[in-house]
Amino acid sequence: MGLPSNLSPDEASPEWMNKGDNAWQLTAATLVGLQCVPGLVILYGGMVKKKWAINSAFMALYAFASVLICWVGWSYRMSFGDKLVAFWGKPSVALDEKYLLRQAFLGSFPTATMVFFQFVFAAITPILIAGALLGRMNLIAWMMFVPLWHTFSYTIGAFSIWCPDGWLSKLGVIDFAGGYVIHLSSGVAGFTAAYWVGPRLGKDRERFPPNNILMMLAGAGLLWMGWTGFNGGAPYTASTDASLAILNTHVCTATSLLTWLVLDIAVSGKPSVIGAVNGMITGLVCITPGAGVVQSWAAILMGLISGSVPWYTMTVLHKKIKLLKHVDDTFAVFHTHALAGILGGILTGFFAVPKLCRLFYLVPEWERYIGLAYGLQIGQTSAGLRQMGAQLAGIGFIVCLNIVMTSLVCLFIKLIVPLRMEEGVLQIGDEAIHGEEAYVLWDDEEKYENTQVNSAYDADEYPSVVSKTVSELQIV
């Protein structure tokens, strides 16, 4: 009995390709792409002060497009291609159909699918960095920063940890879906870049209210739901481990959000919506290094820790530590991404289950991937300590890499253009940079006189409404 015609191999569907895996991988990639565009575009646009809405959203949109050209031009193969040195691949294009249509280095789908899937991860990383720089970075400097940092920092981290030839991959570091490569990198790089760029205006730093909290929540929702593809696509197959990773992701995130919310209520007496979003993000970040290799009860514990430790560092320690106070990290990516990524990496080293690691890595030598908790339980303490050591080595490498490379990139750009906008531009914001405003109903000089506000109002019946100027109605 032969296969159904839709499953039979042909020139477009070779024998090595699994159609289900290919469909899931493209779906997962699209979900991660939606986290960027429009997810973080909307989140940033709504979470900043009104005068920075367009610039902040555009920084995210630009980074998404810029990284794609770098990715297919040279950086995909620097991250996942032939080894140049122990931590870096050889640059080469990923544009030829002979290369793109052959089987990917992992998984039962084409290289073209892998290129797209890994691109959206590469793209979201500098967008997260932007969260530390909103409200003052020179746009031309940002346009230079993205391809330079992507080429000389992201590719090194990705090759070292995710490429089978990378030195940290061979060491046995567990980074299921990017807790190190994406979140720890973006948190450290964002904080470092914020140091070199300098702070926002004093008045912006003192008071920086969101211009549209509902839009912020819409972006946060896309970010949360998009994480289904972020962690669910990491096994490169539509497997049981992918299902577990997705469930763990949402369990940890919900726990973290609720933990942060309870702490806010206990201390301030009010449930902060922005605080809830921060708790959501720290939960998503913390579970990412171990989403498919820890038990679901461990995901709850990770959520409790990710919702409390970053809350404490952001609300208490931040005011006491001189460096944290000095560096203007607009959206606190140091706390929400760097610290949460470190916590996730360490907790993954503690809670990683040998069986789940075998399902994910598909390797027979289970001793290589065993969490310290299970090592202590089954008398394999040395294996557990070895895994914890590998996790700490990965953290140290990513931190040092991003401090050094981000500093070098910023100093290089500074030789060409200023990193920070001029004071006059900082006073005005979007209109000075883009010649556009986020919320414009009429020209500022124009009045509503003799114009119906909407079909429910009549100019004669409501003269006090229709005579108001736009400047009186603008969102502040």
> Helical stretch count?
21
Mean pLDDT: 91
**Largest beta-sheet characterization:** 2 strands, antiparallel
Secondary structure category: mainly alpha
Number of DSSP strand runs:
2
Low-confidence stretches: 447-476
Roughly how many Å apart are the termini? 70 Å
In sequence order, what are the helices and strands, one letter per element?
A: HHEEHHHHHHHHHHHHHHHHHHH
Binned strand content: under 5%
Helix content: 55-70%
Task: Give the spatial strand order of the biggest sheet.
Answer: 1-2
Rg over C-alpha atoms, rounded to the nearest angstrom: 24 Å
Overall 3D shape: globular
Q: Describe it for me?
A:
This protein has 476 residues and is mainly alpha-helical. The protein is 65% helix and 1% strand. The chain contains 21 helices and two strands. Strands 1-2 form a two-stranded antiparallel sheet. The model is unreliable at 447-476 (pLDDT under 50).
Concise summary:
The protein is an all-alpha fold. It is 65% helix and 1% strand. The chain has a two-stranded antiparallel sheet with strand order 1-2.
